[in-house]
Amino acid sequence: MSLRWLATCLTLTIACCGSQQTLAETISVLNTASLAAPGQSSAIVSFNAGATADKIVVLLSSELSGLTSTVITYNNEPLSLIPATTAGRNRGIWYLDNPYNGGAASLSITITAGAINGLGAGILSMSGSIAGYAATRIASNSLSTTLTTTAESSLIVAGLAGNSTGTTASANAPLTQIYGNVDIGSAAAAAGYSQPVAAGSHTYSFSFNGFEPSSNVVSAASFTAVPEPSTVIGLIAAVPFGLRLLRKRRRTASPDTDADTGILKS
After folding, report:
1. pLDDT tens for residues 159-194?
2. What does the DSSP 8-state code read for residue 261?
3. Is 22 helix (H, G, I), strand (E, B) or coil?
4. Can you name the residues that pair with 177 across neighbouring β-strands?
5. How many angstroms separate the CA atoms of 240 and 116, rounded?
6. Model pTM?
7. β-pair type (90-97, 55-65)
8. How would you label 194-206 residue by residue, b for 16+ Cβ within 10 Å and e otherwise?
9. Domain residue ranges in the chain
10. 71 vs 42: CA distance, rounded Å
11. Average pLDDT of the segment spanning 23-52
12. What's the CA gap between 43 and 62, in Å, rounded?
């Protein structure tokens, strides 16, 4: 049996059977929660990430002024701020990979320095995601933002914060609202998620009747689903087909040619 000919058969077969490099699994949202603490600079909430959780995400908003420092922990493990997701009262999107999944644990938020008059957060846990984050987007003086994803079956979160007094904020479809219509101390906030999301550009918006449009900030981030090993499956499926091609070539080879190489005998 010619290894060179077998390799050629497999290469052609994989090109047909394994042209789809990977197919994405779907990220599952396990649990969501929210907190609102008007007049406070810190808050703690009990949250159960779920037995199969591989990520926790927190969308944070606060009524504040001046430079601040923020620390968010889950079961004493610090969350990381996703760059380019914070401005004004929107205090960004935070995440933790491989969180504690043994039951309920404390999620703690502490904002120090500056003048703090309240905070609010939407919390979400998921399974089936790749570590880290994919794309981000932030828009100021706006009630919407557009995020472009390159992977199929992504999960997107988005949050809004803006200046207000006694007003409401809510997430619009296709977002599933995590929290909204909450007072966080002379400001209002809302957050939601969307999944599964196809590759491409997607716009997410909020309804809000705040009196200072320039203070509105919307941020968004996407997370990528773990891919299915379809290339490996294609390769395994290709082997029997490649062997059949090789056997057929050997049966139909001319007596004047080598059955393995197809080269004329001398």
Report:
1. 999 887 666 899 999 999 999 987 787 888 999 999
2. T
3. coil
4. 192
5. 67
6. 0.78
7. antiparallel
8. bbebeeeebebbb
9. 25-227
10. 10
11. 91
12. 12
